[in-house]
Design goal:
single chain, mainly alpha, Arc Repressor Mutant, subunit A, Tetracycline Repressor, domain 2, 0% strand, DNA-binding transcription factor activity
Length: 197
């Protein structure tokens, strides 16, 4: 049975994303050639243009894929926590710790913002922000954290985790920066608690 056009298009998108992800991780966005990545995927430049518009569109798809995987990993860690507060803290720390991953560093935290702009405006960050807001609302309702504006608190917590990760990725010694960033993130988050730990 012949493949439907939509199946072929999805396969081509997946091949291009996989090839670009490997190329961007190995060489960085600027050095990755469109001819090389389309050849790596076994496709033409036309397929790249048709599916993503241009190289920047392809980077956006790769960043979205990795950022979504990062969110899932952080949520898995949070799911093991024994309270909603600890889950919120663990999710933020997990996101910060992923800044040590070389692929995350190069594609999401260095090339992504340089090419795609402010990460807080990316669709994947927006969905994480909304999930954080829901947890903050729950924690306010149960009296764990101070009755502050839930969206403001969610934005500040998300921004702190994102900026900590960006700092780690851009530093000369990411392993040395990580514990400082995590400690500061926790201290900032704990300032929201009604009763200090």
């Amino acid at each position: 049975m012949a493949k439907r056009r939509s199946e072929t298009m999805e396969e081509n998108r997946a091949k291009l994303i996989a090839a670009a992800r490997a190329s961007f991780a190995e060489q960085g966005y600027a050095a990755a050639s469109m001819d090389e990545l389309t050849a790596r995927a076994g496709l033409t430049r036309g397929a790249l243009y048709h599916n993503f518009g241009d190289k920047k569109g392809l980077l956006a798809a790769v960043v979205h894929q990795i950022d979504s995987e990062m969110a899932a990993r952080a949520q898995e860690r949070a799911a093991r926590a024994n309270s909603a507060w600890q889950a919120l803290l663990d999710e933020g720390v997990a996101y910060i710790e992923m800044a040590l991953d070389k692929e995350v560093q190069r594609i999401v935290l260095l090339d992504g913002p340089a090419v795609l702009g402010d990460p807080s405006q990316w669709p994947s960050q927006s969905s994480c922000l909304q999930a954080t807001r829901v947890v903050v609302e729950q924690l306010i309702a149960e009296g764990t954290i101070k009755p502050v504006d839930a969206e403001a608190a969610a934005r500040l917590l998300s921004g702190a985790a994102l900026n900590a990760a960006l700092w780690i990725a851009a530093s000369d010694n990411p392993e040395d920066v990580l514990p400082k960033a995590v400690a500061a993130f926790k201290a900032l988050a704990e300032g929201l608690l009604v009763r200090p730990l």
